[in-house]
Design goal:
Organism: Quercus rubra (Northern red oak)
Order of helices and strands: HHHHHHHHHHHHEEHHHHHHHHHHHHH
Structural class: mainly alpha
Distance between the termini: 31 Å
Keywords: Cell membrane, Membrane, Transmembrane, Transmembrane helix, Transport
Protein name: Citrate transporter-like domain-containing protein
Shape: globular
Strand content: under 5%
InterPro entries: Cit_transptr-like_dom
Helix content: over 70%
Subcellular location: Cell membrane
Length: 532
């Protein structure tokens, strides 16, 4: 494709530059509008500058990708409600055999979770768990945070639903879920293993530190801390509840004070206790005739009134016990309903994965599974749907329009025509050159725009189109490990770790870069050799 007119090239480049600056640096001082508004601004400028028409802008929005994104986000919300991520967190510390075992578990669990539930969601829900585990074992947190972020990126490369750029590649290339998985899975498995070995080699001394005796007490409450943590995956927010013992004691006191049945029962116990204590006159005895007569009269009255009072008391006590038994039955019913609902969630999850492996349409499969969970929940879906990151969907809309406008300028085609002879995947040198270009562009312009700009051109000129798409998926995903700004998952881990209450830790750019550069280069090279 030849270059467009000079005016379109200049104006289109300005619009794309504005989009790029706001997407990579969302807190720009002179325009602090954020990524989502920056994406819309870039798309709007493409239309205003007449680089593309309004109809071309509408056509550029890929509804299949948006539907797949929406379905996976809704799905992750219901998986969180079904305690899926809490169980993953427990696996991190279950029968642990030391720091080196823990870091291997973090790598394995984050990789598998990212392949199934996206890397961003995995990093949101597991970051604070990782910080707690590091604190319990008196270990520096940054090796574990690096393990979480890097393994989440590597693991997400294995499936089309692992990250946004894979969604784009799967939809544009029409590669089935099963073919995508089998093509990259060997690279992913070896990549996670190599990444874990690099972490062990680089941080062997730090991971060999012995625990102090005073830190053993922290492990007593590990289970309670895991249970008290709650997440909101789609919106990347969280909160920590009160200490579980304090919270339970408050609930017990409140329940006793507020329950009418319990107050009546305590009143009857107090009355019976008072009646069992003899009066002063009964102990001393009174010999006078007048007192004896008075006692006879009072005894007759008591004999008449006490049986009726006892009957009434027993009736009330029976009512209280029946209320308590019905409440117990209600609690048991609610518990079984929750177990049944969780089982349904896990069955729907399994069914969705089977449907994807069978090659059904990924967008409609994800949306159908999400709506199945909405129906099975049998509640108002608004609270769950409010947790969906609609700003991410809007960001993608603006990005589709902006990238389409930039393609219309002819600049990407001209640059690719220059690189094409050196980046063919028919030989090793060409694959290496292509990998370097994708690595650099993914860190400079972000991985999703890189895939949108290069995807079709790389595939068109390749002898094996499927392999070209898979190479692009692998390199653009692993490229996120190069620097802290390379992927959204890295930024999520960094921000979640910094904001964690009482566990806050700042993962610096340089500490990430020191591990990210060798890990990215080695894992990328090994993975390229295994892609089929």
């Amino acid at each position: 494709m030849a270059l467009a007119s000079s005016v379109k090239v200049v104006l289109g480049s300005i619009a794309f530059a504005i989009f790029w600056v706001l997407a990579v640096f969302p807190a720009v001082p002179f325009v602090p509008v954020g990524r989502t508004a920056g994406s819309l601004l870039g798309g709007m400028l493409m239309v205003i500058f007449q680089v593309i028409t309004a109809n071309q802008a509408y056509a550029a929005i890929d509804l299949q990708i948006l539907g797949l994104l929406f379905g996976t986000m809704v799905f992750s919300v219901y998986l969180e409600r079904a305690d899926m991520f809490k169980y993953l967190g427990k696996l991190l510390s279950w029968k642990s055999r030391g720091a080196k075992d823990l870091i291997c578990r973090v790598c394995l669990i984050s990789a598998i979770s990212s392949a199934c539930f996206t890397n961003d969601t995995t990093c949101v829900v597991l970051t604070e768990f990782v910080l707690k585990i590091a604190k319990q074992h008196n270990l520096p947190p940054h090796p574990f945070l690096l393990a979480l972020a890097s393994s989440a990126n590597i693991g997400s490369a294995a499936t089309p639903i692992g990250n946004p750029q894979n969604l784009v590649i799967a939809v544009r290339s029409k590669i089935s879920f099963g073919n995508f998985l089998t093509g990259i899975l060997p690279s992913m498995i070896v990549g996670v293993i190599v990444n874990a070995l690099l972490l062990l080699c680089m941080y062997w001394k730090l991971l060999s530190i012995e625990k102090n005796e005073e830190d053993v007490a922290v492990e007593v409450n590990a289970e309670e801390e895991m249970n008290s943590h709650r997440f909101s995956p789609a919106t990347m927010t969280y909160f920590t509840s009160f200490n579980s013992q304090e919270w339970n004691s408050r609930l017990e006191v409140t329940a006793v004070q507020s329950s009418p049945g319990m107050s009546v029962l305590m009143g009857h116990v107090e009355n019976l206790r008072n009646r069992s204590i003899p009066s002063e006159n009964e102990i001393r005895g009174v010999p006078s005739a007048s007192k004896e007569a008075a006692n006879d009269v009072s005894s007759q009255v008591k004999e008449e009134t006490i049986p009726s009072k006892r009957v009434a008391s027993l009736d009330r006590l029976g009512d209280v016990l029946s209320v308590l038994s019905s409440e117990g039955k209600d609690d048991s019913t609610a518990r079984w309903k929750k177990i049944l609902w969780k089982s349904c969630v896990y069955l729907v999850t399994t069914g969705m994965l089977i449907a994807l492996l069978l090659g059904l349409n990924m967008s409609w499969t994800a949306i159908t599974a999400a709506l199945a969970l909405v129906v099975l929940d049998f509640k108002d879906a608004r609270p769950s749907l409010e947790k969906v990151s609609y700003s991410l969907l809007v960001f993608f809309c603006g990005m589709f329009i902006t990238v389409e406008g930039f393609n219309k300028t002819g600049i990407p085609s001209t640059l690719w025509d220059f690189m094409e002879p050196y980046s063919k995947i028919d030989h090793v040198i060409g694959i290496a050159n292509l990998a370097v270009v994708v690595l650099l562009m993914s860190n400079l312009a972000s991985n999703v725009p890189t895939v949108l700009l290069l995807g079709a051109r790389v595939a068109e000129l390749a002898a094996d189109e499927k392999k070209a798409w898979l190479i692009l998926a692998w390199v653009s995903t692993v490229a996120g490990n190069l620097s802290l700004l390379g992927s959204a998952a890295n930024m999520i881990v960094c921000e979640q770790a910094r904001r964690a209450p009482q566990l806050g830790y700042t993962l610096s750019f340089w500490s990430h870069l020191k591990f990210g550069v060798p890990s990215t280069l080695i894992v990328t090279a090994i993975g390229l050799a295994l892609i089929r």
